[in-house]
Amino acid sequence: MRQAGRYLPEYRRVRERAEDFLRFCYTPDLAVEVTLQPWRRYGMDGVILFSDILVVPDALGQAVRFAEGQGPVLEPVRSVGDISRLSLDRLCGHLAPVFETIRRLSREISGDAALIGFAGAPWTLAVYMVEGHGGTDCGRARTWAYNAPVEFQGLIDLLVDATTTYLIEQVKNGVEVVQIFDSWAGVLGESQFRQWVIAPTTEIVGRFRAACPGVPVIGFPRGAGVLYKDYVEQTGVDGVSVDSTVPVQWAREALQGICTVQGNLDNQALVAGGQALDRETARILGTLAGGPFIFNLGHGILPETPPEHVARLAELVRGWAGR
What we know:
Layout: H1 9-15, H2 21-25, H3 28-42, E1 46-48, H4 55-60, E2 64-67, E3 71-74, H5 80-84, H6 91-94, H7 96-109, E4 114-120, H8 122-131, H9 139-147, H10 149-172, E5 177-182, H11 190-211, E6 217-221, H12 227-235, E7 239-241, H13 248-254, E8 260-265, H14 267-272, H15 274-288, E9 293-297, H16 307-318
Parallel strand pairs: 1-4, 4-5, 5-6, 6-7, 7-8, 8-9
Antiparallel strand pairs: 2-3
């Protein structure tokens, strides 16, 4: 999950130097610095590229901006005509600053930690692109997918191409692990989940693996419930990040035999700290540390998180010896 962010005072100081959030993501000097800040503080095993999933719609030609106190605002894509105005041809050129950030990070880290890249999954990107903002029930996107699945498939196909290309280019420039974030997967019913989450992700993983053999892929279909298992088995991801609602015992029994599990501390427990943090961390480690496992949050770190709580968590995980 996201490491850099507003919970770090040094991040806030750097953020003040950028005129807007997208410019921040596209400025390698700033993006490299904030990517490395949590690693310098806590010495994690992995360093997560600082960027945003919405750089892909922006690179395709959709108008994207981040409004203060509101989050992302996009000029909605709601018709075949809107889709036709998007172009894959401009993707890599537009995202060249991100690739420069990756190259610099690879040199800075120099094998001392894994450099992790990421992209949004087609369904989640489509939700933002159709709805025009976050904080939604995804009604417009879901209705379009039900009423005109062939039209909607056109948008998904474009995003499969864009996401695959983006992830491959990240690896070419130095990324060692990739994550595919499907943050809105949990709003879909079973049949729609299979059509708009599993099927596109399967296509991306297959193409990515053909181009980048041996590079691990972690998927995160947030809110998938029992469909996490089908997601893993059918997409072929190497690891799956599970959200905080997933029982860790179930994750051990259903998932750890077929892939690495990543997760799933409640980000509010990290805010709370103290005995609650110690207890929840020990519960997760006690259940999952015996198999292939990456300790992580169940969703992104919250802005109000005290940095000293993150330091305590890192200490607990490093000191775990199966007790």
